[in-house]
Amino acid sequence: MARRLVKNGHSFYVASVPKVTEEHRLARRAQIVAAARTCVIEDGFHKTTMADVIRESGLSAGAVYGYFKSKEEIVGAIAEDALSTIDDLFDSILASEHPLTPLAALEATIEHVAKVAEAPGGDVTRVAVQAWAESLRNEAIKDVAKGKYCQLRDHFVVIARRAQADGTLDPDVNPEHVAQVMFGMVPGFVLQRLLIGDISPTTYTAGLRALLRP
């Protein structure tokens, strides 16, 4: 328990204050991010305000602003949470004694994106698409999106380099160019899934395999 000096009408005294644990802070942060995700999915990024997030979270304004100073910061947190699961996916891929080929790694990524989109708490890919549009007019959101997506593309660079090392990818090609194309396949899947709907990881990866067959 932490202690602080408190003054009443007659004197000062030392009062015990419950210590906020790291677990509690993380839970509060997750509560705010979940509330923001719900608001953006239901009402759109541009229409959602900090007041909406505060109301949806059930917390005080001071509590919410204690974690996030702006809507842009919350969008960054939503992206961070979503991409952290992809980081875990690539950690497992790269930790394998027999790493996946670029095509197999891309298939695993597409399947993972679909799984995350269907997880409880709302389809985070809807937030992603709205953030893309907002990036065209909001430099702060653009910086967040660029940073997170460059991080994902860097994972594909590592995959390409490992494929070159084990002989499954032409050693003369630029791995960054390969990563650019691999990354581009992910938003293509997301957009078709949201806007057209007649697509699944199975159909998408089947098309990729057919396209890349010698």
TrEMBL record:
Protein name according to UniProt: TetR family transcriptional regulator
Record flagged with keyword RNA-binding: no
Keyword tags: DNA-binding, Repressor, Transcription, Transcription regulation
Domain HTH tetR-type: 26-86
The UniProt record lists the keyword DNA-binding: yes
Any one GO molecular-function label of the UniProt entry: DNA-binding transcription factor activity
Pfam families: TetR_C_6, TetR_N
Domain of life: Bacteria
Record feature DNA-binding region, as residue ranges: 49-68
Record InterPro entries: BetI_C, DNA-bd_HTH_TetR-type_CS, Homeodomain-like_sf, HTH-type_TetR-like_transc_reg, HTH_TetR, Tet_transcr_reg_TetR-rel_C_sf
Residue runs in coiled coils: none
